[in-house]
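Hi there, hope your week has been kind to you so far. For a while now I've been wondering how a particular protein folds. I'm sending you its amino acid sequence along with the backbone structure tokens. Could you read through the record and tell me how the tokens relate to the sequence? Take your time with it, there's no hurry, and the full record follows here.
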Amino acid sequence: MILDTHNRIHNYLRISLTDNCNLRCFYCMPEADYSFMPSSQMMQASEINEIADTFIKLGTTKIRLTGGEPLVRKDADTIIKNLSSYPIKLSLTTNGVRLHEFLDTILQAKITSLNVSLDTLQADKFLLVTKRDNFKRVWDNINLLLENNIRVKVNVVVMKGVNDGEILDFIEWTKHVPVHIRFIEFMPFTGNRWMDDKVFTWQEILGTIETKYPWIKLQDEANDTTKKYMVPGHAGTFAVISTMTSPFCSTCNRMRLTADGRMKNCLFSKEETDLLSALRRGEDIVPLILGNVQAKAAERGGQFVEDFHDLQAKRIENRSMIAIGG
């Protein structure tokens, strides 16, 4: 069991496979020229397997693969198949562009739920946000997953003046289609041009929805990051990840591993523990894992607890989102 000083059990590991991506979303990737990690700096497939095995022996029951975009990695297929042999819940967060190429692997790995990032239902705005003309491909791949009875959670980063006008469109999508929309408050990371006046809050999201749709609160699961809701009679549901206005830190069970094998105990933690270098030196990484979790702050990496309107984003010490892993 991996326990921190706040008596939180940690049994969920998110592994970033790469800091590369085939989209260029401004809130994730810094606007300046970005240098991707060389392959030698990243965890190799066998190393991912060995580190994951250690976490599982310590009590990890769920692993999510992230990026960047995990499916741009050449050996993603091998990594997914390797991890699927463990007695864990395995899942994936993806932008959906290459899902059709991995459908057989996903089915063979018995992955039953996937998170797909999609911030707009408008093809022209998709191009504006991602700088890539891939809306139809992502849309078709979401439908492909649904046709194969795979649960789809759609991650929507809501940004005021960008896509907050589409909230009702996403809710309309849930009327006849069993998709699960997850509205995410805009969060600050290095280089993503975060400003407090771009945050569309949990309360504003619910207020927008109730102008057209009555909603009911659903039961949230233990350690959940989301506040779940549904419109009566709709096939799908919706939720809000309210990191900025109502964080869920008190029940957090998450650990993160960057593509270069550094462990983060929080999305916003500035400290990292280099597991990969220790592994390559033949050292026992268990004390490093336990020590990293023991050092976990009570809330949001210990970097901000105040009202987000008072937050000075440039003072946060962290990587860019694409370098951390979604």
